[in-house]
Write a structure and sequence with these properties.
Elements (H helix, E strand, L loop, with lengths): L1 H7 L8 E4 L4 E3 H4 L10 H13 L5 H4 L7 H7 L10 H22 L14
Antiparallel strand pairs: 1-2
Length: about 120
């Protein structure tokens, strides 16, 4: 992980892709949002969640830790993807439904059958 960050803050084109997977593409410029006093890009957070979930030393199954991307949270905050309904009850229900589907998709994709037994981390 350290070598990725050293490389990201090194010399090179800001548009150079430094990381890609089936969900994320992150450029050098986006990785540099990890600098102090800078708003961190969602795809950088999502990338770290993916890397930590795939890291054998952070094994999801043995440590009972799972790192979620920002995608489920974004499902709760957006109106546009749900047809822009003015009916707040319908919009709230659709947001919650999409949040649950997104959370489920993330842990199933990581090979976790259930989140039962996992502990919530308090920040």
């Amino acid at each position: 992980m350290r070598c990725v960050l050293d490389y990201a803050f090194g010399k090179g084109s800001p548009t150079q892709v430094l990381y890609t997977d089936d969900w994320n593409i992150v450029t050098r410029e986006e990785f540099q949002t990890l600098a102090p006093n800078v708003w961190v890009m969602n795809n950088v957070i999502d990338t770290f969640a993916r890397i930590l979930n795939d890291d054998p030393d952070q094994s999801v199954k043995s440590n009972l830790k799972f790192y979620f991307s920002t995608i489920p949270f974004n499902m709760l905050c957006q109106n546009e993807p749900y047809g822009g309904s003015q009916d707040s009850q319908a919009t709230e229900g659709k947001r919650l439904e999409n949040f649950i589907l997104s959370v489920r998709h993330e842990y199933v994709t990581a090979g976790v059958k259930s989140l039962k037994g996992f502990h919530l981390l308090k920040l």
